[in-house]
Every structure is written in C-alpha cells, then in structure tokens.
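Tutorial handout. Part one gives the primary structure; part two gives the three-dimensional structure as tokens.
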Amino acid sequence: MARQSIDARLTALGEPNRRAIVDLLANGPLSVGELADRLPITRPAVSQHLRVLSDAGLVSYEQRGTRNYYGLHPDAVAEVKDYLDAIWTKALGKFKLRAERKR
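Part two.
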C-alpha cells in the first residue's frame, strides 16, 4: 500500500462529518440528499465531504438517473483496516514484552 494513499485516507477520516458519512455508507449506497437528511449539515457540505472522501479513494459513486449514489470503496477501506490492524498488533506485542519484563 502506498504511504501517500494511507495518509490521505487517514486525513480524510480525521474529520467527524466524514466519519459520519462513512458510517452511514457502511450500510449501503446513499445519495447526497439521503446523506444530508441523516446529518446535521447541508447538502453542499455533504458534497464537499464526499469529494474529499472520493479523492482519498474511500468512496465511489454510481449514477442512477439524475442522482449519484455513493458507496464505500471496499479495497480502500480494507487498506485502512489492515494498516490499523498492523499498528494494533505491534502495540500489543510491545505491551506483552513490557508486561513479561516486569514479572
């Protein structure tokens, strides 16, 4: 995984409204209007956040008639998960070593 892509993805997820959008999209694709109806922000703000998430590769969209439906990009989400899992595994390993040294 490219360091640049994981940095962009983590930066995009650093904003609470974008995390809320990702949480909603975890249940399936939604339009901008559907997202705006479920969030305390305007449609233009939702669109701006979706643009950041899209630029980071976390979401993609599909045009259906006059609407765009946004959904999570599974490979990008899996990369973020794998990155965080690796950090968690390292941290647990270090914690285990410290705990064993104190015995």
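Part three, for discussion. The domain at 3-102 is CATH 1.10.10.10 (Arc Repressor Mutant, subunit A). The chain is about 70% helix and 15% strand.
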